[in-house]
Specification:
3 helices, 0% strand, 48% helix, rod-shaped, mainly alpha, single chain
Length: 151
Amino acid sequence: MPDRLEELRHQRALVQEHLTWLEHEIAQVTVTRLTLPPFAMRSDRPGTASRPPTPMPAAAIPELSQFQVDPDNVQGDTRRGCFLYTGIALIIFFAVLAIIYFVGYRDRPVLFVPEKSASAIVYPAGPPKTPAQPAKGPATPPPAKPDPGKK
């Protein structure tokens, strides 16, 4: 039972500390709004850049401390992840293109067509079809052969 009581007192102290911090922040914003004109309350004031960045507070729950992220490594991890996803996307893209080419165009290849002669034009889908020649006048029947049985 005394452990539970100590834990509850510790939690009450943490909540009280948080409430004190909130009251301080509210008072600071209220004073700033009352003393400065509206156009001077921009976030890019020279006074904000001179303050050092506040350190990240330690995790209140010890179990969550193992999931805390180091802010120095976040940019490198993000960049590495972007390059990784871009590389995977390009590999998948070119694999799909290769599958479409080799499966869909196997019977009429576009690449790697052997040349028949150096001066001839190589068409990817084979030589062009020549149009049919029109008929040259009426066809004459062949001369009749004499029948050997009739004389």
